[in-house]
Specification:
Number of domains: 2
Shape: elongated
Low-confidence stretches: none
Order of helices and strands: HHEEEHEHEEEEEHEEEHEEHEHEH
Number of helices: 9
Strand content: 25-35%
CATH architecture of the largest domain: 3-Layer(aba) Sandwich
CATH topology of the largest domain: Aminopeptidase
Largest sheet: 8 strands, mixed
Bound molecules: zinc ion
Radius of gyration: 24 Å
């Protein structure tokens, strides 16, 4: 395909501007659903391009539609925009100027890469056999910004539902710089929350028979959940259940009236997720009942598993191999247990989500500080490749038409 070198040559010309944008974003990171400075930079970077631009109502998203010169379907490209509540410790010249806030997950590169893809595709608008939706998304870090954008009509932005969606995520560690890693099927976990309060009856620590002690029962419930993980789930469709907080009581001689714990629950398929939702609540309620306690147990769905469509993941890997060379495209042997709210898009649209190694030169990806670390550093020399890959995926997928 002749479009690959041509696209990449244009991307190399854009690279200095994309690096400047990325570093400006890096200096002024924002957390959450409301990212006014970031949104203003995105709007400024898209200014003058032939796009239909809309902003979100409940969040500072930007949705931009590029209408191709030829008829065809719609493809969606996504970049998330938000930072994390971390005090940056990289010592980089363009480190965060905002105390306690840092682009520690590389979403500043995602914004710049998506701007790059928009520029590359806008330059080739007449060639495009359909339309492209650019999804600039706040609130990836735990706030389900993607779901809010869907509720606000993301998939109707171009007037027709997209036939495919693609997203890249940079990594500060794990993969060598410039390497793309993905897999068909589940690529990241569902991340849900189990919140439990066991209610008994408080009393004097010397006379437990006069009280209803929730402490032994809560210990039993935590262990029963671990047994549930190994006995009730397929080893090849696993779940992870980690109790991260556990609280009861105020003094060593007082039996508390209640005990509380909270767990993160990871699963990799809709089936395992449904099962762990039912089973975990039954285990907790059953242990409580066995001891005569009341259980307030709530399983909260947070992010679904991020599942790559098999055909789209195969197509994206093929394009990446052609673009970058086969040695720079890896098939992950298993999913990651982290979570990602692109999963809400992937639930609705056949999607492919990939990692892009951005480990800085001189660091070993096996030991470099990883995403979310205060020392995480991302090499923005990968921006041209990332923008080219996204643009090429859109160009080629549109060429295949709606029924590919
Ligand atoms: Zn991230």
């Amino acid at each position: 395909m002749p479009s690959i070198p041509a696209l990449h040559e244009s991307a190399v010309l854009l690279q200095p501007g994309l690096v400047a944008l990325r570093r400006a974003l890096h200096e002024e990171p924002e957390v959450g659903l409301d990212l006014p400075l970031t949104q203003a930079r995105v709007l400024a970077a898209l200014e003058g391009l032939p796009l239909e631009v809309a902003v979100g109502e409940k969040l500072s998203s930007v949705t931009a539609v590029l209408r191709g010169g030829r008829p065809g379907p719609v493809v969606l490209l996504r970049g998330d925009m938000d930072a994390l509540p971390v005090q940056e410790a990289t010592g980089l010249p363009y480190a965060s100027r905002f105390p306690g806030v840092m682009h520690a997950c590389g979403h500043d590169l995602h914004v710049a890469g998506l701007v790059g893809a928009a520029r590359l595709l806008a330059e080739r608008r007449e060639q495009l056999a359909g339309d492209v939706v650019f999804m600039f998304q706040p609130g990836e870090e735990g706030l389900a910004g993607a779901r809010v954008m869907l509720e606000e009509g993301l998939l109707e932005a171009a007037g027709r539902t997209p036939v495919a969606a693609y997203a890249l995520h940079v990594t500060a560690a794990t993969y060598p710089r410039g390497t793309v890693a993905g897999r068909p099927g589940p690529i990241m976990a569902a991340a849900d929350t189990l919140t439990v309060t066991l209610r008994g009856r408080g009393g004097h620590g010397s006379s437990p028979h006069t009280a209803l002690d929730p402490v032994p029962a809560v210990c039993e419930a935590v262990l029963a959940l671990q047994t549930m993980v190994t006995r009730r789930f397929d080893a090849f469709d696993p779940v992870v259940l980690t109790v991260g907080t556990l609280h009861a009581g105020t003094a060593n001689n007082i039996i508390p009236g209640d005990a509380f714990f909270e767990a993160t629950v990871r699963s990799f398929s809709p089936e395992a997720r449904d099962r762990v939702r039912t089973e975990s609540l039954r285990v907790v309620r059953g242990v409580a009942a066995a001891h005569g306690l009341e259980a307030d147990a709530v399983f909260t769905d947070v992010y679904p598993p991020n599942v790559n469509n098999v055909a789209e993941a195969g197509f994206a890997a093929e394009v990446a191999r052609e673009l970058l060379g086969p040695e720079r495209v890896l098939t992950m042997p298993q999913p990651e247990a982290g979570a990602e709210d692109f999963s809400f898009v992937a639930e609705r649209i056949p999607s492919a989500y990939f990692f892009l190694g951005a480990c800085p030169p001189g660091l070993d990806p096996a030991s470099a500080p990883d995403n979310h670390s205060a020392q995480a550093a991302f090499d923005d020399s990968v921006l041209a490749d990332g923008a080219t890959l996204l643009a090429e995926l859109a160009l080629r997928r549109l060429e295949q038409g709606a029924d590919a």
